[in-house]
Amino acid sequence: LFIHFPRLAIENFLRSRRYPAARQGEAVALLEGGAKGLRVTALNAAAAEKGVRPGQALTDARAICPGLLTFPADPEGDRAALLGLARWCDRYSPYVAPVFSPGSGPEGNGPEGNGPAGIALDITGCAHLFGDEAGLMRGAVRRLRRIGFSAHPGLADTPGAAAAIARWSGAR
Fold it and tell me: Sign of dihedral through CA atoms 79, 80, 84, 85?
């Protein structure tokens, strides 16, 4: 089983104490700087609806969405959140591992990197405890979504296939 978190950075930020609850529903983007200036690394649904996109320069994002609220990205916090979610998932399997995408982390998390990818679980011999494999997967995803994370699952015989299904299938 692989669980992909496509919006981990923005969801982690919106759940944090750094974001005032009174501002829920406003367009929000997380930024990182580089040689080309500040760029959007993550955004919420309100910002996406107004046309803001990951990788976009801050100046372009502000031209499209003048009221855009911006905050610095926190790659280390995102990595810590993924590690915490992996520990939380150990209720489903004795083997749980966070999987980071190439370019993730303090050196490369940004528009070119993909950020934390997700969590791999070896559910061999565990599924019967939750009914079956599909029941285990549905239960885990339902609970993760309930606590505020977009969790996209993939179930396959190999870790790579499960990750590909989770990340690229249209099923959500």
Answer: negative
β-pair partners for 122: 95
Specify whether the CB–CB gap between 26 and 48 falls below 8 A. no
Q: Which amino acid is at 16?
A: S
Q: Which residues, including other chains, have CB under 8 Å from residue 164's CB and lie 6 or more apart?
A: 154, 156
Beta bridge partners, 57, equal 39
20-54, pLDDT tens digit by residue?
655 778 999 999 987 779 999 999 999 999 999 99
Residue 102's pLDDT band, with cuts at 50, 70 and 90, is low
Asked if 16 and 148 count as a contact pair (C-beta separation under 8 A), the reply is no
Q: Give all strands (DSSP E) within the chain, no chain letters.
A: 2-4, 28-32, 39-43, 69-72, 95-100, 116-122, 152-154
Q: What is the mean pLDDT of the chain?
A: 86
Name residues whose C-beta falls within 8 Å of residue 97's C-beta, 6 or more positions apart in sequence.
Answer: 86, 119, 120, 121
| pLDDT exceeds 60 at position 78 | yes
pLDDT at 24: 72
